[in-house]
Amino acid sequence: MSTRQQVLVLYLATSALDSEVVGWSSYDGTGRTSPTTGDGDEPPYKSGVHALEDGWRLFQAAQLLPPHPGHEYDVSFLKHEFFFEKLVEAGAGSGGGPV
Amino acid sequence: MTTTWEQSTGSTLLSSVAMAHFVAHGSLRLDAVVPAEMNAEGMEVLRGGLPDVPYGTPVADAYPEGSFVRRLLELPFVAGALRSLVGPGPSVDHHAVHIREPREGQAQPLHGDAIIDVRTDAFDVQLMYYPQDVTLDMGGTLSVPGSHLRRTNESDTGRYQNLRGQSRLVCPAGTVVFLHHGLWHGGRRNDSDRARYMFKIRFNPSVRQRRLWDTSDLGDPRVAEELATTFPWYEPATGRLEVYNRVLLWRSLTGDDSYDLDHWVTRVSNRPQEEAV
Description:
By secondary structure, chain A is mainly beta. Chain A has one domain (3-89). Helix content of chain A is 6%, strand content 32%. In chain A, a hairpin with an 8-residue loop joins β1 (3-12) and β2 (21-28). Chain A starts with a strand and ends in a 10-residue tail after the last strand. Chain B has 277 residues and is an alpha+beta fold. Chain B has one domain (1-271): Jelly Rolls, CATH 2.60.120.620. Chain B is globular and about 75 Å long. Chain B has 8 helices and 10 strands. The termini of chain B are far apart. Classes of the chains: A mainly beta (99), B alpha+beta (277). Chains A and B meet through β1 and β2 of A and β6 and α7 of B. β2 (21-28) of chain A pairs antiparallel with β6 (162-163) of chain B. Chain A: Residues 25-44 are annotated as: Disordered. Chain A: This is FoxHVI.
């Protein structure tokens, strides 16, 4: 029996895990699906907590970092990035959630 | 990319409302402005390929009079938009024919072209011309409205697959889109059985980009409405910084250093020097 990792990355509206999803990405270690750039307009979950409720395990959250002095008004990458995983059987289905 | 800009004066130059739309969205879309017979010719031209143009070549030298590309750039709404955005006499940075092959299985990562470019008082534009109808499954360009002022380098944004409010281009033949150089975009996966063609030209301004459009409607309240546009993918806190940065760009484009939206720039710049009496 071997497992594979499915990864879901959610970008949230604030640093709170229960805030709204504003962006998302997913990767499928089983190779059964091939999510890619621009493949959907609807987020898989409304918030980070909704992903937890569907069985996704949070394993990384973006740190809260103060802006660099002199660059307080700069805009760059999305700030509130959360990584989730599911471990699924290599020969099984997608684990019941969107990937 | 949306289609909400309009001509309020009958001029082929952009209106202030349209310019404000560009400053907020980072793009301007002109649906079906190229006539059908030119699109048929354009398909043949793109299939045959176009020779490279040396960096910085003036438009007149890059595209001889009467050539397909020159005629494309002389179409009134295309010429008016280009002049409004970068002024007279821009040079051609480079051009390229982009083809998304049928069922090629791969999308481009989300990226900004060239390298990180943080100019606050100048910008390049990229013209994208679509000579054929583009359907959702043909891999039309993905772009992210309001991403052009983000300070990121090329494909470092490749981790972002989808953002709320993103634009997945579906358009009629003959559509031309102008992008600010910083806009996040990428060719989507073509899941159809047809090749998808697009021709891109990047233009560098050769004059100061100030009041180059039809400014007769500068006081139109819709200018502020356009500039205050927010997008579903913005984190609310960062969205406020987006407005702050747009105000600075609008000040640069108009020369009006007092312009503001909801006091965002004025408030954090207020450092009175007069002593109390």
